[in-house]
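Entry:
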Amino acid sequence: MDFLGKYKEFPQTLQMLTKIDLELQKEGVSLFDQLSLFLLDDDYSYDVTPYDVIPFANIGADGIHYGFLTDFGRVKDLEEAFIVCISPMNFGNHVKIIARNIKEFIDVVLTLNDASSIENLLDYSTKEEYRDFLDWMAKDAAMNPEFTEQSPYICERIQQKLNRKPIDDLYEYVEVIVPEQRKKLAPINTFDTLGVVSNHAEHNQETFPMNSDSMINLKELKSFFKRNENETKLATIRNLQFFYLIQDDDELKGIVKAEMQKMGLIDEVNRMEL
């Protein structure tokens, strides 16, 4: 599992979930068939997958996947890493943190009885939107019971084995609790909303101007990188990747790669090249 880099192996909770899936498969069911959750054992990433995210699952459609946010290797234990949803086809809203850790990600899946539905949350931000979405899901399940008849059994198995439970207020969790905790840890703003972790109580951030239509002046970018500290550089790299500016520009990609190498981000450089 070279794509795991320094972490060597997935955290215990995910290993236990994988074991449950293997047991279910022997019974003729699976997490993927019933909950649209396909657990990965190899690299799975897109150009927009943040370089410090380690994917661990997908839904088998549209490239939608979930991963551990390592904060450029600063996370010591993947068990405690924030969980990110990446939806490559959802341009502009293709990245969002949806859980504080792998255990609570499982709680989100249990709440929706379906991993594929999580992607919808990338487009929602209000209590009303969440309410309407959950109401629609309940009605859809009632009208199409053949698609969800095994889901309660699977979810109950996970709850018992992993001691997890559905979230009472999904809106409050995803839109209030998670962002508030993330902001305390990563106060440096980025367009993808992931932010960058900082050791400084106050951070006067210089930003490199850009948007999805930008033609990056490479000379100015090199100068920007030269005069700024690592945290600002990482925020800029996040923004460049979020706006799809790196993938088709080999020279820009080389500059970003060189900066990450200077910072010792070998795992991130390796993921860039996968």
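The chain has a mean pLDDT of 93.
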